[in-house]
Amino acid sequence: MPRNKYNRNSAIPTTRLERLLRERELRKFNRIFHPNEEASNGYRETELFEHELSLREGNNWGIPPEEEFLEGAAAARSLNQGCERQDGRPSKQRLLVVANRLPVSAVRRGEDSWSLEISGGGLVTALLGFSAAFYSSNLLIYLYGGVKEFEAKWIGWAGVNVPDKIGQRALTIALAEKRCIPVFLDEEIVHQYYNGYCNNILWPLFHYLGLPQEDRLATTRSFQSQFDAYKKANQMFADVVNKHYEEGDVVWCHDYHLMFLPKCLKEYNYTMKVGWFLHTPFPSSEIHRTLPSRSELLRSVLAADLVGFHTYDYARHFVSACTRILGLEGTPEGVEDQGKLTRVAAFPIGIDSDRFIRALKLPQVQDHIKVLKEMFAGRKVMLGVDRLDMIKGIPQKILAFEKFLEENPNWRDKVVLLQIAVPTRTDVPECMLLY
């Protein structure tokens, strides 16, 4: 009879997973009979615990099975419910979400008056429906059901230039009511960092569009000046995070705008729990190696405890870039550099489906549905919902629809293409060509 590989009664562990499970049992035994040794061995126990969780058959990127994911999420919630602050209220894990833009848009109404509106950006929508396992060196947190499970604060640029102290103070107070913390960037930094390095260099490269030619740029927008502004802006974000960081917080950095942020934060506090998630593709190593300062960017991201991507392919490309460009060792769990392991994993992002289901029940939505059904009665509707972005292929989609109607004239009165396009990156010349 073949031996069960998960049988803890076997005398000699023959697989790595068995060894880790056996070590966990020994740790439990030691905690009961040798409690004084627990503190000194705490770091090693945590490290082994993370390794055993990340090792799963058929899943080399360490994503827990669904039932364990839900079990861990329930455990995390029960732990939160069992903890109380000094004022008697339930305590939650603090989460600092750091992104280039805040989830609200600010409009100045006076010297010390601001109005705020919820932003419709993709990052905000994504976080509402985000579910993933978040690992860090001393903590396992399950981001289950989005950031609503945590006491979250959002740090980012407000999208406006506020040069005066009165305006900055007033905006800070207004944003605090939305649990937001502003990073104040001046116009030149925004021009070089956001419009320059982020949208002129990183974004095209990550979408396989290649780097712009240096001679197309003004002398004040060279690769180096944009890169310097990028590092300076990331340090400004780090300064705001450090100002509001409390021991035990988890810092969750987002997207290609903040690839330097993990390194800046770890230099401030090496024990800080830092994760970084990319909301775009990560290109193959052959494409990434064309980027000036490619090594510096990769090492900055590797300072994080966990690096997340949308898909397995993007995660694989990142590990490949680290091994081929930096010469580091790629493992099933991530990338190892001189004994320090940065976990790399794929965390597909969904949508907040409950929000859409609730919206369908609203009277005004039902009325609009009725109008649309009458408007398109007897015809098939092809619906496209995209940002007005040059990589979304909207002109190609329209041309393809035109070609379909030319080749199939019998469909001309039977089908309609309805394209919804949300304006984006209005400061990027290439995107403005679509408007």
What would your notes on this structure say?
It comes from Tetracentron sinense (Spur-leaf). This is alpha,alpha-trehalose-phosphate synthase (UDP-forming). It is an enzyme of class 2 (transferase). Its EC number is 2.4.1.15. Keywords: Glycosyltransferase, Transferase. This protein is of the alpha/beta class and 435 residues long. The chain folds into three domains: 1-55, no CATH class; 79-83 and 90-346, Rossmann fold; 362-432, no CATH class. The chain has helices spanning 16-33, 42-54, 66-82, 122-128, 165-176, 187-206, 223-244, 261-268, 285-288, 294-302, 312-325, 353-360, 363-375, 394-407, 429-432, and strands at residues 94-101, 104-110, 113-118, 132-136, 139-143, 151-157, 180-183, 250-254, 273-277, 306-309, 329-331, 334-337, 340-346, 380-388, 415-423. The protein has a nine-stranded mixed sheet with strand order 7-6-1-8-9-10-13-12-11. A two-stranded antiparallel ribbon has the order 2-3. It has a two-stranded antiparallel sheet with strand order 4-5. α14 links the parallel β14 and β15 (415-423). α7 (223-244) crosses α8 and α8 packs across α10 (294-302). The protein is globular, with a radius of gyration of 25 Å. Residues 1-11, 37-85 and 130-146 have low confidence and may be disordered.
